[in-house]
Amino acid sequence: MGVKWLSVGALLLAFVAGAAVAEATSLTQGSLYIGRTDSANQVWVGKRRIRVSDNGTFVMGFDRDAPLQQHYRLVFPDGREELKTLELAPREYRIQRIEGIAKRIMQPNSEDLVRIRAENARVRSARKQDLAHQFFAKPFIWPLTGPISGVYGSQRFYNGEPRRPHYGVDVAAPTGTRVVAPADAVITFAEPDLFFSGGTLIMDHGHGVSSSFLHLSRLLVKAGERVKQGQVVAEVGATGRVTGPHLDWRMNWFEQRIDPTLLVPPMSEVIAQERVER
Ligand SMILES: [Zn+2]
């Protein structure tokens, strides 16, 4: 993606007169865009041909710092092409300071590094999957309710040192609290003890959209299992690089990091609703 694709996009714009229409949407950095087209058409994002389902549904996601102008290309059965443009609203991200992280976690030794690389490769390959399911197209639910202790995109400082931004939403809850699948999914990764993320689950919602749960104390499902929205899949823990028990829920569209909170109602509304129902 990036500059290379943008210049190709500009060329296409010049050739396909009047075909590129900026669509007015409420998309932002970190959001997921679900589109519809004729199922006979191809959809390309940069050099990636993305899956179009039988009913014409396709999806793409935009990273934390994604360029505000995004393009995709429709290729019709007769070979004609049309460039589409999506405008993203910019986001502002918080700064979060975390102290008290163990030295071994801050400065992994060479053995740890070997392990971390191997784990990262396995996580990446789970996120590369492109399953035909369209579970992402239905509304998501929160995996649990509780105070939000970390938000998507915040710039993090661990023991004063700047580190990668935080990509998940953290919900604080005691160890052992049950967490449910936020949408139907196929479990593509289930490991009890990764170096940074501890007990880790990856749930695939189709077309490259996946949820990851981190720092779990207990996994209740296995890789390959099909789970339903609302099904208990794991328990909250404090495993990996954490300072206390919480669920870290992350979402991806392939390698692009998505903000899960854009797919669910505000936590305050869900908690208020729970009180009414009790
Ligand atoms: Zn987190």
TrEMBL record:
GO terms for molecular function: metalloendopeptidase activity. Residues 165-260 form the M23ase beta-sheet core domain. Keywords: Signal. Residues 1-19 form the signal peptide. Gene3D superfamilies: Glucose Permease (Domain IIA) (2.70.70.10). Pfam families: Peptidase_M23 (PF01551). PANTHER family: M23 FAMILY METALLOPEPTIDASE, PEPTIDASE-RELATED. This is M23 family peptidase. The lineage of its organism: Bacteria, Pseudomonadati, Pseudomonadota, Gammaproteobacteria, Oceanospirillales.
